[in-house]
Amino acid sequence: MRTPTIYRPVVNMELLQGYAPLLDISYWFNPRPVPLGPSLVGGVFSFFSWFVVVAVALRVIAHFVGKRDRLKSDVAARFARLLGTSGFLGLLFLFFAFEQIPLFGMRFWFLLLFLLFMVWLMRIALFVVRDYPALRRQDTEKRRFERYLPNRRN
Known about the structure:
The chain has 5 helices and no strands. Helix 3 packs antiparallel against helix 4 and helix 4 packs antiparallel against helix 5. The protein has one domain. The chain is mainly alpha-helical and 154 residues long. The chain starts with 12 loop residues before the first helix and ends in an 8-residue tail after the last helix. It is flat.
């Protein structure tokens, strides 16, 4: 009689070995980290540069949409502020890391920037999901009410 084969998941530890330094605190708080390679600098630079470009585009969109819909303009402006601030700080931290400035070149600043981005993004998402519909209803009700009031004529 054959014994049943027990299947166990195979965990490829070699795949996870490259991420081990991320769990080490000295990786994040090393005042003199390993210099960044040129391909990494180019990739991170283009990543944060796109944040700034999209922020400018959203700011322009918010300006033109603001003439018709104040609330949509507010949402676009919030995303523009998030991306603009994150992009600028990311480029600044990249400059400090590239120039190997001891305190400001630490990798910790990128982790802090990521946490700032996620918290800010969650606050915008809460605004869009929770507050935006209520403000939209108030705005619609106000317009419906003001329709019956006399207008000022010049």
